[in-house]
Design goal:
By secondary structure, the chain is of the alpha+beta class. It is built from two helices and five strands, in the order αβββαββ. It is globular.
Length: about 110
Amino acid sequence: MTNLPQRLQSILIFALTERGDFGPIQQVRSVGGGCINNASQILTPKASYFLKWNNAPLPNLFTTEAYGLRLLKEMNTIRIPEVFKAQEAHRNTMNGCMIGLNFSVRTA
């Protein structure tokens, strides 16, 4: 996998395995549009995912985002992607901070 920190790769593979996607990860595509976090589309034979991470995040950045997305999803008024993993940095290892979602593409 290119452009993902090694620790993040390990966390991602474990999270995908927990949800029954045993890979392999076929492609990592950079996704633009943001200026605060890094973002990529992750492709496996089973699904497509959106992964966002930050090497110097604010405290509780992604767990708070995941909580907000879950609240929005409960409203059942707009389509919200499922969060499959939200993790903050541990023990001064900033490259483990990430949020992963199902990758949705709106079709007409």
